[in-house]
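Worked example 2:
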Amino acid sequence: MVGAGVALALARCGVDVMVLEAEAEPGLAASGTNSGILHTGFDSTPGALETRLILRSAQLRGEVLDRLAVPVVACGAEVRAPREKTRALAARARSNGVEVQAHEDRLVVPGEAVTDPVRMTLALLRAAAELGARIKCKARVSRLDCRSDEVLLAGDEGEIGRCRAAVNCAGLFADEIARAAGDERFRIYPRKGEFVVLTPSHDAPPLRRIILPVPTPRTKGVLVFPAVDGSVIAGPTAVDQEDKRDWSVSADAADRLVVAARRIEPALEGYEPAFRYAGLRPAGADGVNYLIERSPSCPRLVNVAAIRSTGLSASLGIAEYVVGLVEETGLAFGPERPVPQLEPAESATPWWRRSAEYWT
């Protein structure tokens, strides 16, 4: 998701862009296994880089997603909590300039929305390709040779390409890409988020809003939200692990999520579990979060690392921020071009099933 946004932002600046995707297709890792929620940043830490980029992305995405023909359900959200907690969240939202409506036992956030994260990722890349970007799949980078005027990128089978500037948006493997360039300042570990997809019976009422718990510094907690296809999704869990390729969902976790969803919203008694999937969020060790900067060991490499669960919401703001860092490398930019107008793209497979089946 973040790499796709960066690719489009640079292509709009007239840069010759090549996207190197490690897997068989884009959007198969964290970008295709999240909630699909577009957060407003109402509960984010005021002034933090993460918050600034979420807020900027919220300003950008209405026009961008409309031109990319990406589906968005502008359903809003509500936090159900005691008055003292909703008042504290309302105060934080006001600090961030986000509209909220405070009630006795809930906080309504009208701007929260839901999208199809896979269609959004692929649409960003389609738009970048319209502007000349090339996308190369099965191109896992394992070696970088940082030179004064270029970066050489190579895989196990030899050289993949050379460039004036490289942007490391490798998600779970961003630390490994950085280490290949001699930068060992951070470590990424996977924080597993398990989800369960619920489908309604013929007479079950639709879920009208995203229902959010009170967030903690570590996680936003278990959410219940409508997906763009009419199903309802509950999750995620937050399980820290070391295996970057363990996408399994435990039966116990799935059962607990179903119970939690029905406790949060009793109307979901009319919904039955139909599928489950897991996402691995690229969390930074030792409190590292949103590390977006030029590498001190390789100035032509921009690291975009430890972009945790808000990466979908912040992706367009991140892309704009990265463009400024790339420009510092001396790359020549042309006049900014508009976002291409795309036709809607459909998929026979729901986004929440696509990645799970790939990793299985």
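The mean pLDDT is 95. The domain at 2-189+284-359 is CATH 3.50.50.60 (FAD/NAD(P)-binding domain).
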